[in-house]
Amino acid sequence: MARAPRLTIDVTDLRRRLGQRRDVEVDLDLDPIQVVETRSAGGPVTGMLVVESIERGVRVTGEIELGWVGECRRCLDEVEGSATGSIDEIFQVDAPDDGDLRDFDGELVDLVPVVTETVAFSLPLAPLCRSDCPGPDPERYPTTTEAELEAEAAAAPPVADPRWAALAELDLREEPG
Ligand SMILES: [Zn+2]
């Protein structure tokens, strides 16, 4: 069995002075994480984090990079890419359960759950093999591409709803009766 990935840092020294910072390199071999039809490549997740000593804990910020593999939402071909995820987490001694803060013992910070969650949130849920992918059968099932939609939105001035125009033409004061 593969060794479970570990990224636990001891922040005892760091926490002796508020505002003290330390760089932590991320290079983790996580198991693939699947969200809908997209999964992380399972290769190394890399990045650089900064751990900063704050009141009652530490703050962890930085970015990670990961590869992913998925299915094009139009043609269903396999598509792969890379994504970046931002991390901004606070570990606090005796953090309340109901908040966004992560509880820790004041000494050891386990960054694996943070990185794992960030990977899951960074996966594209409906990827495209290319932005103008025409789909599997463009003759029978024409697909409007993002580029076309954007062009339409930019070109077309806001149009009044034709139902309002029809109502405006009615003269409500002269109801037959
Ligand atoms: Zn495609």
Outline the structure in words:
- This protein has a domain at 8-122.
- The longest helix is centred in the middle third of the chain and has 11 residues, at 112-122.
- Strands 2, 3, 4, 5, 6, 7 and 8 form a seven-stranded mixed sheet that branches.
- With 177 residues, it is of the alpha+beta class.
- It has three helices and nine strands.
- It starts with 7 loop residues before the first strand and ends in an 8-residue tail after the last helix.
- The mean pLDDT is 86.
- Helices cover 16% and strands 37% of the residues.
- Zinc ion binds next to loops.
What descriptive keywords fit this protein?
177 residues, seven-stranded mixed β-sheet, two-stranded antiparallel ribbon, elongated, binds zinc ion
SSE blueprint and pairings:
Layout: E1 8-10, E2 21-29, E3 34-35, E4 38-40, E5 44-54, E6 57-71, E7 78-93, E8 102-104, E9 108-110, H1 112-122, H2 146-155, H3 162-169
Parallel strand pairs: 7-8
Antiparallel strand pairs: 1-9, 2-5, 3-4, 4-6, 5-6, 6-7
Helix percent reads: 10-25%
Order of helices and strands: EEEEEEEEEHHH
Number of helices: 3
Bound molecules: zinc ion
C-alpha-based Rg, rounded: 26 Å
Mean pLDDT: 86
Globally, the shape reads elongated
Question: What class do helices, strands and sheet pairing give?
Answer: alpha+beta
For the sheet with most strands, the description reads: 7 strands, mixed
What percentage of the residues does DSSP assign to strands (E)?
Answer: 35-45%
According to DSSP, the number of beta strands is 9
Low-confidence stretches: none
Distance between the termini: 86 Å
